[in-house]
Amino acid sequence: MKVVSGETMQQMDQRTIREFGISGLTLMENAGRGCADAICDRFGAASGRRVLIVAGKGNNGGDGYVIARYLRERGWQATVLLLASPDQIRGDAATNLERLGGEGVIIAPEGVAAYAELFPSSDLVVDALLGTGVKSEVTGVYAEAIGAINAAGVPVVAVDLPSGVDANTGRVLGVAVKAELTVTFALAKLGNVQFPGAEHSGKLVIVDIGMPKQVVDAAPGGEFVDAAAAARLVRPRRKTAHKGSSGHTLIVAGSTGKTGAAAMAAASTVRTGGGLVTLAVPESVHPILEVKTTEAMTVPVGDHGRGHFTAGAFPFLENLAQGKDAVALGPGIGAARTTFFLVQRLVEALEVPMVIDADGLNALAAAPELLGKRQGRVTVLTPHPGEMARLTGGGVADVERDRIATAVGFSARYGVHTILKGAATVIAAPDGRYAVNGSGNPGMASGGMGDTLTGILVSLLGQGYPPFDACRLGVFLHGFAADLLAAQGCGVGMHATDVQEKIPLALSRLGG
Ligand SMILES: NC(=O)C1=CN([C@@H]2O[C@H](COP(=O)(O)OP(=O)(O)OC[C@H]3O[C@@H](n4cnc5c(N)ncnc54)[C@H](OP(=O)(O)O)[C@@H]3O)[C@@H](O)[C@H]2O)[C@@H](O)CC1
Ligand SMILES: [K+]
């Protein structure tokens, strides 16, 4: 499913009107009717039920007037509360306001205070205050109206976007409507699928408003990765497959106190279908990994008794990487200076597709230009916002302000694939493509989930998946496996090892 920015949607509206002769009025009619349909589908068309439509002065309010007209036809008692004076309403919105003929329309440019009782006494509130035209923090009468909508205690349907949600980033601009259902038009907006906007949107329904396919197909945007999109990426295994044809990966991981990270990365590589897994660990912890891992082969790497990798291990690891299909670098390696030197040298020297995670990323924070030297080679980085901030040299707030811009910008600059973790993980390719992940749940907020993801990614790369496919499928699979657990009642408190065990089932549900 394609997702677009607010500006792209507005350009699509304009192109439809200019090049295809479909009027804005027709688009608004289709939008309002589609929204009324979605409301009746969800809440029924029982006669006499009261709906309060809170309208702003733009075209989002215009949709609200059309919704009022259609819901009335279907037996609802619709009241429009307009938070502007009629002389502020222009164009198609003005035409549709006129069509309502003033009946059941309350003009309230001074705000909602005098109409407070209308909110809780309605059966449904429709939020048609602000859509893709929202520009800045919401204050004044609009902010008060959003407060009244959220406090009403009745179901709320948002038109296009919950008012107060930034259309591009999903940020809340001071205050935002919390909807049970959001009916959005033509394509989902980036603000509908990124948090907190995704949570404010509730269930998302996309209504076809008659935009030509050419306009929709040509629009620049990202991909929202849901189960259908992920299933299209899966490459079912050939009947003649053998371990030698399913990828041999090398995982460089572990240190004293962090052997679990190494074990989990290796196990999830196997669970994702990796043919052979070699796990290289510092020799001091090797006996532990011998016990912890079963399917993966372990290799001790000389560490002079320190319990972590040292720079001197470079030739050994460079040699070990020969003939491997993909390498993962970072789970549980720790933050020793000598380990960081080793990582930097490996990043520069190894040509094999590489996933870099955890302290592997922190090793690069001091020298991100090394990534640029890998131009043309496949590199996947899996930072959480803190690691991303260290890599970009900014703060976490800068990263989170626009997660897509951060990941896309970093990928383009250094020629890498960036997986910016967090709810609605962002996946960016070096060529500007990007995706937002739709799987996962808050139960995943625990240690070891990142190591699990690293294992999944290196496994898919090792099996020959193109890197952007491996990233999108891997991230979805990770969240989907956790969603399968949550569906069985194992939500908060799930272990990363539990998630690993669900990977094969998740993969098979996607057709793998
Ligand atoms: N043909 C089409 O285009 C179609 C569009 N469609 C619909 O139109 C919607 C987009 O309409 P839109 O462009 O009129 O913007 P909209 O979201 O109504 O808000 C803009 C108004 O809000 C104001 N405003 C902005 N920020 C504010 C703030 N923080 N606090 C307070 N006010 C603020 C701003 O005022 P200004 O600052 O410009 O004075 C302006 O007046 C789209 O989401 C979809 O629902 C569908 O019908 C399909 C066809
Ligand atoms: K809205």
From TrEMBL:
Keywords: ATP-binding, Isomerase, Lyase, Metal-binding, Multifunctional enzyme, NAD, NADP, Nucleotide-binding, Potassium
EC number: 4.2.1.136, 5.1.99.6
Catalyzed chemical reaction(s): (6R)-NADHX = (6S)-NADHX; (6R)-NADPHX = (6S)-NADPHX; (6S)-NADPHX + ADP = AMP + phosphate + NADPH + H(+); (6S)-NADHX + ADP = AMP + phosphate + NADH + H(+)
Cofactor(s) annotated in UniProt: Mg(2+); K(+)
Cofactor note: Binds 1 potassium ion per subunit.
Taxonomic superkingdom: Bacteria
Binding site for AMP: K421, G422, A423, A424, T425, G450
Domain YjeF C-terminal: residue ranges: 226-510
Binding site for K(+): N60, D127, S163
CDD domains listed in its UniProt record: YXKO-related (cd01171)
Range of residues in the leader sequence: none
Alphabetical list of Pfam families matching this protein: Carb_kinase (PF01256), YjeF_N (PF03853)
GO molecular function ontology, one term from the record: metal ion binding
Biological process according to GO: metabolite repair; nicotinamide nucleotide metabolic process
Binding-site residues for (6S)-NADPHX, renumbered to this chain: 59-63, 131-137, 142, 160, 261, 332, 384, 451
PANTHER family cross-referenced by the UniProt entry: ATP-DEPENDENT (S)-NAD(P)H-HYDRATE DEHYDRATASE, ATP-DEPENDENT (S)-NAD(P)H-HYDRATE DEHYDRATASE FAMILY MEMBER
Subunit composition and interactions: Homotetramer.
Similarity section: In the N-terminal section; belongs to the NnrE/AIBP family. In the C-terminal section; belongs to the NnrD/CARKD family.
NCBIfam families documented for this protein: yjeF_cterm, yjeF_nterm
Annotated function: Bifunctional enzyme that catalyzes the epimerization of the S- and R-forms of NAD(P)HX and the dehydration of the S-form of NAD(P)HX at the expense of ADP, which is converted to AMP. This allows the repair of both epimers of NAD(P)HX, a damaged form of NAD(P)H that is a result of enzymatic or heat-dependent hydration. Catalyzes the epimerization of the S- and R-forms of NAD(P)HX, a damaged form of NAD(P)H that is a result of enzymatic or heat-dependent hydration. This is a prerequisite for the S-specific NAD(P)H-hydrate dehydratase to allow the repair of both epimers of NAD(P)HX.
Name this polypeptide is given: Bifunctional NAD(P)H-hydrate repair enzyme
Taxonomic classification: Bacteria, Pseudomonadati, Thermodesulfobacteriota, Desulfuromonadia, Geobacterales
